[in-house]
Amino acid sequence: LTQAAGEGSAATEVEPKAYVDALLEVHARNQETVNRDFKSEAGFVASLDRACKDFVNKNAATGTSTTKSPELLAKHADALLRKSNKVSRDEELEDALNKVMILFKYIEDKDVFQTLYTTKLSKRFMHGVSVSGNAEASMIAKLKEACGVKYTNKLQRMLTDVSLSKKLTEIFKEKMAQTDGESELDVSFSVMVLGIHFWPLTAPTHEFVIPKDILPTGRKLTWLWNYSKNELRTNYLKEQYILTCSSYQMAILVQYNDHETLSLGELLELTGISKESLVQLLGVLVKAKILINEEQDQYGLNPSYESKTIRVTLNLPIKNAESAGVHNTVDEYKTRVILIAITKQVGIIFLPFPMVADVLVSCGLKSDESKKGKEMKNQQLIQEVIARVSQHFTPRVSDIKKTHMSSLPTPGADADLAEVWSFLKEGMDYMMMPPNDGVSYHKYMDYYAVAYNCCTMSGRRASQNNLIGSDIYNHLIAYFTAYLKHIRDATDNLQGEALLQYYANEWDRYATGANHINRIFTHLNRHWIKRESDEGRKGVYTVYTLALVRWRQDIFLHIQNKSEKLSNAVLRLIVEQRNGKTIDAGLVKRVVSSFASLSLKDADSKEATLDVYKDYFETPLINTAEKYYKRQSELFPAESSFSGYLKQAAEWLKEEEDHVEQYMSRIAGETFLGRCAACLVGEHAGSLRESFKSLLDFDKDGGTGPSLTFLSGGRHVSTDLRSICALLARTPGGLEPLRKKFEGHVKEAGLTAVAKLTQATVEGNAATEVEPKAYFDALLEIHTKYQETASRGLRGEVGFVASFDRACKDFVNKNAVTGPSSTKSPELLAKHADALLRKNNKIEEDNDLAEALNKVMILFKYIVDKDVFQKFYAAKLSKRLIHGASASDEAEASMIAKLKEECGFDYTNGLERMFADMSLSKDLMSNFKEKMAQAHDGSELGLSFSIMVLSPNFWPLTAPTDKFVIPKDILPTYERFTRYYGQRHQGRKLTWLWNYSKNEVRTKYLKEEYVLTCSSYQMAVLVQYNDHDTLSLDELLEATGISREILVQVLGVLVKTKILIVRGQDQYNLNPGEVKAESVDVLKTVHEDRKYAIEAAIVRVMKAQKRMKNQQLIQEVVIQISQRFTPQVPDIKKAIDSLIEKEYLERVEGEGDLLRYLA
Q1: For residue 1135, with 0-12 CB atoms within 10 Å meaning exposed, 13-18 middle and 19 or more buried, which class applies?
Q2: pTM of this prediction?
Q3: CA distances (Å), origin 1085, targets 473, 612, 867, 868, 876
Q4: Strand partners, 292
């Protein structure tokens, strides 16, 4: 995206919409993968969230800054919420805003987004470009849901200010119309009165002089002239235009009602605008051609101003800054009403509220009477207050609790423990009551301060503070015990699901309330309790842990000791769910969660042991599941087919996976599922393995083998394979026997396919040599078939894939065609690749050729001796390039790129240099022809000539050993090129490969003129007959310089094609055009190359190690060379002896097989 932005005509800044769309596209695609393929597994969901958080906040567009993403997202949201957003329907806009919130979730610097969004919102409101109030409110609601009310408080107040400003402007205009009359209201006026704490606006610092045209409407407010907009009419022009401009621009322009020209200094005095801002404003007006700058610092109206539109907008950027603060009058009103209701009930007032006196009057109480309250239980008070307040609004219980707590007097510094505990207990009661919304921050600090002061009262001795801490701790024990008594009593008459429901509800309430209480007594936890625990006192816990201990003793064990009512109730629900009944899974999860929370080690309250969870839930659950599935394993196969059993077993395990996800930890869940699978396998392990082999045999025969009893219900073979593997994968080592069976099966199938191929070749009319394409197709067919089995039937399991690769490697390199040699397969594969890359490959489409080459690479991966393939491929490539027989340069480059990707740069370096030589040869030939055209006339250049200059280090070509006599017909051209090349590349020597050259000659001695394409040797023989009628073999040997052996071959071809006739008894009938069997030459070269490669590897290793034992050296050499070919140990030993003879290495005397590097 950033590259596209940089290369385009636009600025390099990434467009916000394009940026957001790019991020959303990646998120949506991978979220679909998580949901569809990974079943929304929690770990994958967490991984997706982490990845999104990373690339959303740090990428090529953001650089190292984390503020760029929130900035671009805020700009995109601003574009959506403007009138110009090009979104036609409200539903589309809502969907677009929801997508913004998807990315907002991952933004780290949400405060940056808030600042930028607030700024953009203020501009939309002030300039009236917001798409709609409903859309703005919807976006604010989304942000509020994501980040809370504090995050959006400013935004909501801005909405309120805009609404109030509209009403204020209407009331103002009505008032002015009544008092000033219509004649004084000739200026159209609209104002927005904004709360200074919520709008990111900065008041001007200079003394702006209000133009007299609008002065009557002024009021004593902080006027933000730098944000205001105005409309002016140009009465001085023939055509009247309406100029939309800022207040500062308006202040400048209206000065020209009284002056023709004004200097910069005069405008500064008349307008009161700062010099910096005024210069910027004048620049905008001059650029817009409203003003003209006739002389230095002299500005006047442009009398010839013209515009295509009647309305003209003059733009100027607005600077802004953010301020903070909030004051909520609605909440204050509700608090006042609740407070009045509480006061009328209990008559106690102690609040830092400014309306306390007003509340007393509203209740009809005097200040002294308010101290005389009556006792009332918390629940009763809440019910009475709800009854009184509901006529005004429906109050929340948490608001009543907080307001009442705020009205309680805070104990003073001289308060005794009884008074302090009474105050703390009152707050604790509210925290333990439903709903557990806690208390206000102000009241929380009161409780915290009282508890802190009580434990650390200055003036007391340490022993007294220690005693106070002990008293408070005992009070807490008594409080939790008393609170839990009514819960314990209520459980005695409950059973089953009703018991679980009551237990879960009370647990949630109790745990939340205990957490609030724990925070109040933080100082007690950190000091007194910690000291007691450090000194070895037993039974002392942090406040929250104390609450858990009391629950375990008073509630959990009380219920559990009565015939294990609690755990049995949980297990019964799970059994019912296993049997197909719908249960409240959330209820079970809440109860099980409490078991985990109650698992505490008594000796160390900080350490969790999960003993309660394991003893009362996990172990019984595993035991019941084992009994259940053992029984099912024994009964099911007798009642149905084996295939049906596999299907049912998979469904059972899937159900248990759901249970694990709902009720158990991941580690415990794996153990549980393994135990369940072991029960389902039971006595069927052997049958499952045999069925696996039978299924593979059935699949090998294409489904035409003997019918199988377990293949019922029309199930596909891959389905049964998948079911068997899924079942055995849960058991320890269950898949290893199957992997071995699969590996042996694939290897056997590959060997059988090649054996059939060789048999068909021998029985047919063709030669016994196997066709490379047929060999390739046979291997590829087996690979494709069983690769599908491994990926579909065996779900691509790593062990099966590894077994599949080993089997393919075996049958590709050693089979009926190759015999014991490992060089035959790479030779045939190279020949097949050569056939594909030739012009006569019978492949019409480029895509088909690319696919065929990809298939070659599939088998190439399994080739052991890749260096053999390299040599054969290089030999074939050289012939294609020399003879111009390649299908295309693109196909050749593509194949080399594939080999390079598989084996590295060194493997394809020679092949790439061959291509480079071809390109250089073309350039060289072009330059030579230009040079010759300049130096000679056309009659001297009648011979068509083309040459390739090839590097001997990279081309697998052999120079001729005979003294070839260059025919006089081509000798001038030969000499000219030799001289040209010598001048161009001094010091280089050309070795002419006449045995690879091609020529064309014309038969002018016949009535019909033929063009003969022939080798240079054939051409050298034929041109001798320009001067002789007949030539003997010896005469031709002398005239051409060709060796007798080759000359006999050349003459045989010419005789066979009836170009020459033979007089005498000589007869030639040899292989046309071939000097030696190509395979023999290639293999000889391979052997030499391997020898040098082994020696080079030995030198590298010894140079690094200096001293090394013989066996260690051999092992290291095998590791280094095995990527190219599999070296034989005897060859390595021979190479070591050779290097010792060359004095690269020596054997250390007295050290046996220890070698030392000499060079």
Answers
A1: buried
A2: 0.49
A3: 91, 75, 11, 9, 14
A4: 300
